[in-house]
């Protein structure tokens, strides 16, 4: 056990005396208390839109107790001066810059091991009962009815009534499925909750987004040229632009049936199997839609991004209206 404490922490002696395995306790001194680090973290989280406008695309923030520092993750697409700008803007506590797609250490080990926290941008699955598994990406936690929390994803992912799992833990069942017309979206009821074992967190969070816990996501319909950052299970986090709106796509499902989707938005981003349902964000705290389809190629038996990729999604307001759900959702 690694315990980091400030010099004036009077509870240390009592803690050491009560800890049964003294030889397993590693004690280190921390200059900055947790409240101080979290206060600076909240400043960063509140400035997401300002930072994005300056070219600093923040993907996550978290406090690292071992290094006694605030960690700010920046997307690879950030401006070359982004790290220096962030360091200059936030000088209250030690700051570390992460430039890769890191997971928040206390919540997610990876996109496929993110339970028990329910959030968007992580792997969700359904066991088909024949030795195969359908894999998609969670979209966003939304509200339905009288502040009931539900999870939204793409409508072509799972059948009506299908049980969906998060990191091999049952999450809930599909209560609404829409795949056709102008909507590719579905609702998963979050029904599996055992507080004594798991503490589900219905806060509107997105994997790789620093807005978690600070800002609830809005649902917007973007225009051509708008920034688009998608957080998907298979292809990861990437940013591009909305290249067209009001597009019609013909999508073939696993059974070979063709489904026509109208009024879809198209992006310059790659999407491959397993990405479906993942959130498309504006780089701040607004969700534009959830990944529906995309072009890809097969190399050595594996799907990879096409040389000139594109993907599509149903504008988020259309999904919310069709499913009777709402954003922002405040638990």
Can you describe what's shown?
The chain is mainly β. The chain has two domains: 2-98, 2-Layer Sandwich (GMP Synthetase, Chain A, domain 3); 119-331, Thrombin, subunit H, CATH 2.40.10. The chain has helices spanning 12-18, 34-46, 48-53, 82-89, 316-323; strands at residues 2-5, 26-29, 58-64, 69-74, 95-98, 123-127, 133-137, 140-144, 148-153, 163-166, 169-180, 183-190, 218-219, 227-232, 236-252, 258-267, 279-281, 286-294, 296-299, 302-305, 311-315, 325-326. It has a six-stranded antiparallel sheet, covered by helices on one side. Strands 14-15-16-21-18-17 form a six-stranded antiparallel beta barrel. β14 (227-232) and β15 (236-252) form a beta hairpin. The longest helix is centred in the N-terminal third of the chain and has 13 residues, at 34-46. The chain is globular and about 60 Å long. The model is unreliable at 101-107, 194-204 and 209-216 (pLDDT under 50).
How are the SSEs placed, and which strands pair?
Blueprint lengths: L1 E4 L6 H7 L7 E4 L4 H13 L1 H6 L4 E7 L4 E6 L7 H8 L5 E4 L24 E5 L5 E5 L2 E5 L3 E6 L9 E4 L2 E12 L2 E8 L27 E2 L7 E6 L3 E17 L5 E10 L11 E3 L4 E9 L1 E4 L2 E4 L5 E5 H8 L1 E2 L5
CATH class of the largest domain: Mainly Beta
Tell me the major beta sheet.
6 strands, antiparallel
Distance between the termini: 33 Å
Mean pLDDT: 78
Class by SSE composition: mainly beta
Low-confidence stretches: 101-107, 194-204, 209-216
Number of domain modules: 2
**Tally of DSSP helical segments:** 5
Question: Fraction of residues in helices?
Answer: 10-25%
Across the major sheet, the strand order is: 10-11-12-9-8-22
């Amino acid at each position: 056990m690694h315990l980091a404490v400030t010099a004036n922490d009077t509870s240390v002696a009592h803690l050491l005396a009560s800890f049964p395995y003294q030889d397993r306790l590693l004690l280190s001194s921390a200059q900055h208390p947790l409240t101080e680090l979290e206060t600076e973290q909240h400043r960063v989280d509140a400035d997401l839109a300002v930072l994005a406008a300056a070219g600093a695309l923040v993907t996550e923030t978290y406090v690292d107790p071992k290094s006694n520092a605030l960690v700010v993750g920046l997307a690879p697409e950030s401006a070359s001066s982004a790290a220096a700008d962030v360091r200059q803007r936030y000088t209250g506590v030690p700051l570390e810059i992460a430039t890769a797609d890191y997971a928040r250490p206390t919540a997610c080990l990876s996109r496929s091991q993110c339970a028990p926290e329910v959030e968007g941008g992580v792997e969700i699955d359904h066991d088909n009962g024949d030795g195969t598994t359908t894999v998609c990406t969670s979209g966003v936690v939304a509200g339905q009815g009288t502040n009931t929390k539900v999870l939204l994803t793409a409508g072509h992912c799972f059948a009506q009534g299908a049980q969906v799992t998060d990191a091999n833990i049952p999450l809930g069942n599909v209560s609404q499925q829409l795949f056709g017309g102008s909507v590719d979206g579905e609702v998963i009821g979050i029904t599996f909750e055992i507080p004594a074992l798991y503490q589900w967190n219905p806060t509107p969070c997105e994997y790789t987004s620093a807005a978690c816990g600070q800002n609830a996501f809005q649902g917007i319909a973007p225009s051509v040229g708008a920034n688009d950052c998608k957080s998907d299970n298979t292809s990861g986090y990437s940013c591009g632009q909305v290249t067209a709106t009001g597009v019609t796509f013909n999508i073939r499902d696993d059974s070979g049936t063709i489904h026509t989707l109208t009024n879809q938005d198209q992006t310059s981003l790659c999407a491959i199997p397993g990405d479906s349902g993942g959130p498309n964000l504006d780089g701040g705290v607004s969700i534009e839609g959830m990944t529906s389809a995309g072009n890809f190629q097969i190399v050595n038996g594996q799907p990879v991004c096409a040389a000139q990729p594109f993907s599509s999604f149903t504008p988020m307001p259309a999904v919310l209206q069709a499913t009777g759900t709402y954003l922002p959702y405040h638990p």
